[in-house]
């Protein structure tokens, strides 16, 4: 009698366990993931030409980049009629406030906002970008930001929802990017403001010796 009860308990336990295992795993939808760097970054269309049928080409400047950073390339771009195939966008960021990881997350956010704008799902700002594969051209630190966006951050909207940024990028071109690291990358963001200023001075001294 006792043996029958034990067998029933074992049977019920196995039945419960099998029902739990058989429940399909439902992937949680990606949700909006704001970055503190969002207020220090801007994604803008270079001009008002139509994006229809064109591949979005995103330019990401290097450390301490300014508004005129890409002027020579842009002149070449239009003089060779590359605007017939590509639509230019520029991503601006503050080099020394946030880490590359945070700026990469902010790039993802700006792109998703622009995609929502183009698809009529709510427009944040005035930039709209087609929900299609992109090309990125990045210089120096910009290449690290592009890599962070591509490998560490997933889209929360559009055709690439829940996929890493790299799944959307058809081509990444980096120029003089320190892919193996550099001591001066990300400037002030290397250290907390609460650390002794001596550490910042020491880091600057090390940078000089390494770069000479």
Describe the protein in words.
- The chain is an alpha/beta fold.
- The chain folds into two domains: 36-181, 3-Layer(aba) Sandwich (Rossmann fold), CATH 3.40.50; 183-212, no CATH class.
- Helix content is 36%, strand content 15%.
- The chain contains five helices and five strands.
- The chain has helices at 2-22, 71-79, 100-118, 141-152, 197-211, and strands spanning 41-45, 55-60, 86-93, 134-139, 169-175.
- It has a five-stranded mixed β-sheet with strand order 1-3-2-4-5, covered by helices on one side.
- Strand 2 (55-60), helix 2 (71-79) and strand 3 (86-93) form a beta-alpha-beta unit.
- The N and C termini lie far apart (86 Å).
Can I get a quick summary?
By secondary structure, this protein is of the alpha/beta class. It has helices spanning 2-22, 71-79, 100-118, 141-152, 197-211, and strands at 41-45, 55-60, 86-93, 134-139, 169-175. 36% of the residues lie in helices and 15% in strands.
- Sketch the major β-sheet: 5 strands, mixed
β-strand amount:
15-25%
Form type: globular
Distance between the termini: 86 Å
Count of discrete alpha- or pi-helical segments spanning 4 or more residues:
5
Task: Kindly provide the radius of gyration, computed on alpha-carbon positions and rounded to a whole number of angstroms.
Answer: 24 Å
Query: Could you give the order of the helices and strands?
Result: HEEHEHEHEH
- In the predicted model, the low-confidence regions spanning at least 5 consecutive residues are 14-29
Q: Looking at CATH, which topology of the largest domain would you report?
A: Rossmann fold
């Amino acid at each position: 009698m006792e043996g029958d009860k034990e067998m029933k308990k074992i049977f019920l336990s196995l039945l419960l366990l099998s029902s739990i295992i058989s429940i399909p795993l439902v992937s949680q939808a990606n949700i909006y993931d704001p970055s503190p760097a969002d207020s220090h970054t801007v994604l803008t269309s270079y001009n008002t030409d139509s994006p229809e049928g064109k591949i979005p080409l995103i330019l990401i400047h290097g450390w301490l980049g300014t508004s005129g950073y890409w002027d020579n390339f842009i002149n070449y771009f239009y003089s060779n009629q590359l605007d017939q195939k590509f639509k230019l966008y520029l991503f601006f960021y503050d080099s020394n406030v946030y880490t590359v990881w945070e700026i990469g997350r902010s790039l993802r956010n700006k792109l998703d906002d622009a995609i929502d704008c183009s698809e009529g799902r709510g427009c944040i700002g005035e930039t709209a970008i087609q929900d299609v594969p992109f090309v990125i051209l990045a210089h120096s630190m910009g290449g690290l930001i592009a890599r962070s966006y591509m490998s560490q951050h997933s889209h929360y909207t559009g055709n690439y929802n829940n996929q890493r940024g790299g799944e959307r990028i058809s081509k990444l071109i980096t120029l003089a990017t320190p892919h193996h690291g550099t001591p001066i990358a990300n400037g002030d963001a290397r250290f907390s403001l609460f650390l002794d200023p001596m550490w910042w001075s020491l880091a600057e001294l090390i940078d000089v010796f390494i770069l000479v």
